[in-house]
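Sample log: RRM domain-containing protein.
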Amino acid sequence: LNLLTSVMTGRGLKPGAQRDDPPNSRLFVVTSRSITEDELRDRFSDFGDIQGVWVVKDKQTKESKGIAYVKFARSSQACLAMEEMHGKVLMDGTKPIKVFIAQSRSSATHRDVEDEQLTRIFVMIPKSFSEEDLKNTFKEYGDIEYCVIIKNKFTGESKGLGYVRYYKPSEAALAIELCDKAYRAILAEPRTKASSTEEYKSSPTDPGIPVPSTADPGSFPVVDYRSGDFTRCLMMSTRAGLTQEQIFALFDIIPGMEYCELQRDSYGMSKGHALIRYSNLGSAVYAKEKLNGFEYPPGNRLVVNFIDDGEDRRMATQFVAAQMMAAVWNGPSTSQVSFSSVSTVPRIQTDVNLPPLKKLAPPDSKAKERLFVVFSPSPLPPDVLEDVFCRFGSLIEVHLVPGRKVGYMKYADKQCADEAMAALHGRVVNGVKMKVMLADPPREESHKRPRTY
């Protein structure tokens, strides 16, 4: 890999192809050793202007190692190619390819289609913008998962900064490329622990662009509530598979929430933790008191604790917190929150007109059709999937692939499977977007479970 620059230069690639210019415009492809550069160029050229293709070869034998790089002129083209080509078969008899956004040569990992760092952008906006204004401005570039406006911790006024999270990397890249330059849109850095004196730092390439201080909220130490430390930040833990949307709706009941994000691992799976920040101390204290130990969904007890956000809050702040709570909730008549709206949230939340529930087919039924489902940002629980997919009839079983964001739905009747695919492809259920496709038929001669990637 260290010889990449010199080799690509020797092959006469276009200027800029030797490096990641613009960022995230180079693909890392794991493919069959029989696939040539010309075949890769032919299949990937549908997604944009290709500046270069390079197949990694053994120094001694000159044979392909089954690894290649494809360089596009724009990052949105590379991201779209990754989304569409990952898992595709290029030639009969070869394995499905794997496509990632290539990292720098000093990095040992590559970004995949579900990587959060490719879907969240950071923008400068007028201070008069509401979250609805922010969403309306950027929705033309793709489906938005959520928008957040950064506010002053004391006044609650907008700082003229915000985040927009898309469902797809190509949508985020397109927004950066096509939006008005006044927004100074860039990919948001992951949050890491920052100093208490500086919330934002300047971009190394343009000092005029504020960039969020890099931070991993999961690295913050949990503060023992009994010690009397209060902050505006909370960490919620749950054993149930709650979605970003559900957590947001739950904590948004308390006024003043300015940030809410579900923590995910490298596979995009929920860690069972979420970081929540409020614009004032009173709201955070109230949220902690009301939601710590609250059961949602029924039987799942939430654990909510303060976490250190860099501000030292001692026992003396308890009196201040009480005063702030009184101001937030405007007296004793509104000092209690009714959670009936939370507890009565329907188990299945979707814009699909779902048919009534139907019984599962007998487990020993012969499968006539299988559906392959890709989830974004993370898989739905098996019981929810069973609830949704059984409504079209003849569902035999649901199978989720461990460590992956994919699953299979097995049907005893082909027509039922086709109806489920037509109704659910591209739809959002409980905040999770699903791609529903026909699965490849399993090999008849093998009794082993077919590979899923």
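Observation: The longest helix spans residues 317-329.
Observation: The longest strand covers residues 64-72.
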